[in-house]
């Protein structure tokens, strides 16, 4: 029964695949809880830096720092593209890349040139295929967000913006909504708008500065942007693990359904073979 043997081989192959997807689902579930904790822990720091920066800006309205100045004409913009290094996470990277390329097209339609900073192997490969101008990149980010891997690419963008080579800076990443939902998001990092400088307190603030207010503001702006990017990376990693968990659960369930269908086909083929053998025996006995 050659057909039956082929079906049994397929069943064993699907069962082995099912074991792998189930293991990957369990690993992603464990990692997802940890990434969610890191994501929540990253938010208070960024919010506190933003508050202090807003207080400083209100106390010194005459501060003119390159990172705070808005440009009348935007000729070149930078985009930080954040994706995962690995696949098998459903449509997470695909949706993020769709949002990214839509943003690039929108800027190019306005006559704005685009420089890209890629954080993640999938985004870097997509930008290289599209032949976009990649000025900085970081890959192999791991499962834990680390600031030291972000400092290099962000320093390149800060320098370009301060020297007037970039007129705006955006970030595209996957925002974590819940375990079942992650959506691509686009945020403007530079120039800082009035929305970034809103504070809840109505009274004024004053500080003593060392060495001066401009240096303190420069430090705070960079730390704020770094903390926003770090938080976005934490959310992107949480989204990646959640999407991988859902994708692997779906793959495991699909493998189970495939095994059921193959067993049904095998049983039908086996029953057909038995029926054929019985018919041949009966026909032979009748001929005798």
Automatic annotation (TrEMBL):
<comment type="function">
    <text>Produces ATP from ADP in the presence of a proton gradient across the membrane. The gamma chain is believed to be important in regulating ATPase activity and the flow of protons through the CF(0) complex.</text>
</comment>
<comment type="similarity">
    <text>Belongs to the ATPase gamma chain family.</text>
</comment>
<dbReference type="InterPro" id="IPR000131">
    <property type="entry name" value="ATP_synth_F1_gsu"/>
</dbReference>
<keyword id="KW-0375">Hydrogen ion transport</keyword>
<dbReference type="InterPro" id="IPR035968">
    <property type="entry name" value="ATP_synth_F1_ATPase_gsu"/>
</dbReference>
<keyword id="KW-1003">Cell membrane</keyword>
<keyword id="KW-0066">ATP synthesis</keyword>
<dbReference type="GO" id="GO:0045259">
    <property type="term" value="C:proton-transporting ATP synthase complex"/>
</dbReference>
<dbReference type="GO" id="GO:0046933">
    <property type="term" value="F:proton-transporting ATP synthase activity, rotational mechanism"/>
</dbReference>
<dbReference type="GO" id="GO:0005886">
    <property type="term" value="C:plasma membrane"/>
</dbReference>
<comment type="subunit">
    <text>F-type ATPases have 2 components, CF(1) - the catalytic core - and CF(0) - the membrane proton channel. CF(1) has five subunits: alpha(3), beta(3), gamma(1), delta(1), epsilon(1). CF(0) has three main subunits: a, b and c.</text>
</comment>
<keyword id="KW-0472">Membrane</keyword>
<keyword id="KW-0813">Transport</keyword>
<keyword id="KW-0139">CF(1)</keyword>
<dbReference type="GO" id="GO:0042777">
    <property type="term" value="P:proton motive force-driven plasma membrane ATP synthesis"/>
</dbReference>
<dbReference type="GO" id="GO:0005524">
    <property type="term" value="F:ATP binding"/>
</dbReference>
<protein>
    <recommendedName>
        <fullName>ATP synthase gamma chain</fullName>
    </recommendedName>
</protein>
<keyword id="KW-0406">Ion transport</keyword>
<dbReference type="InterPro" id="IPR023632">
    <property type="entry name" value="ATP_synth_F1_gsu_CS"/>
</dbReference>
<dbReference type="Pfam" id="PF00231">
    <property type="entry name" value="ATP-synt"/>
</dbReference>
